Amino acid sequence: MTLTGQDNGEKLWERCKTIINSVAEEVLGIVGPARKGMWFDDECKVTTEDKNKAYRKMQQGYGSRSLIEECKEKRIKENTIHKRKKKEWMNVELENMELLRLQHECRKFYKAIDMARKQFKPRIHICRNEDGLLKNNEQEIFDRWVKHFDKILNRRKDNERINFTTTNNNQMPKRKTQDTTAHNRTQQHTTGHNRT
Predict the structure, then answer these.
(1) Which residue, 80, 116, 164, 184, could crosslink 173 as a Cys pair with Cβ 3.0–4.6 Å?
(2) Rounded to the nearest 5 degrees, what angle is found at the Cα of 53, between the Cα atoms of 49 and 55?
(3) How far is residue 139's CA from residue 170's CA, in Å, rounded to a whole number?
(4) Which one is predicted more confidently, 123 or 115?
(5) Which residues contact 163 (CB under 8 A, 6 or more apart)?
(6) CA-based angle 21:24:30, to the nearest 5?
(7) Do residues 47 and 78 make contact, with C-beta atoms less than 8 angstroms apart?
(8) In the chain, at which residue ranges do the beta strands (DSSP E only) sit?
(9) Whole-angstrom Cα distance, residue 58 to residue 60?
(10) Is 175 helix (H, G, I), strand (E, B) or coil?
């Protein structure tokens, strides 16, 4: 296969990339990120969905007394199941930490303690636009980053023009600087202050 330009190079790279990705998927499989809160299982999911359905039903029914009571009961049931599951999970984690301590696995022990102490923090995607206003829409954030990096990476050469002067054709060009004395001091490793 002969390459006759950038387009062919791009096509070749895309082909190699798809082959590598497909073989890696077949051999290794797809592994998602490890979840910290393993206590949230199918039972928790079902009760949360029931509570959400009751809440939506209550909002559509203009808040009648029976719908409000049903929603309140579902919320209480959801909270009790979540607390119970989380407590069971935490007890298992504590037993695992105790086992690590008894086996003198200090690094794993302290890492497990740190993971247990950290609270859940949802990922927040916020970015400031050119005017300084906060944006939380994913597409707006993406567009802002594109503009930012485009501005950084594709600066106009007119703004970055450096003035050079040469004394002879044989010498390297010297850069004109605003403060030649500061430049000379840095070359001589002095600050200009008297040392006593």
Answers:
(1) 164
(2) 115
(3) 54
(4) 115
(5) 175, 176
(6) 95
(7) yes
(8) 127-128, 134-135, 164-165, 174-175
(9) 5
(10) strand
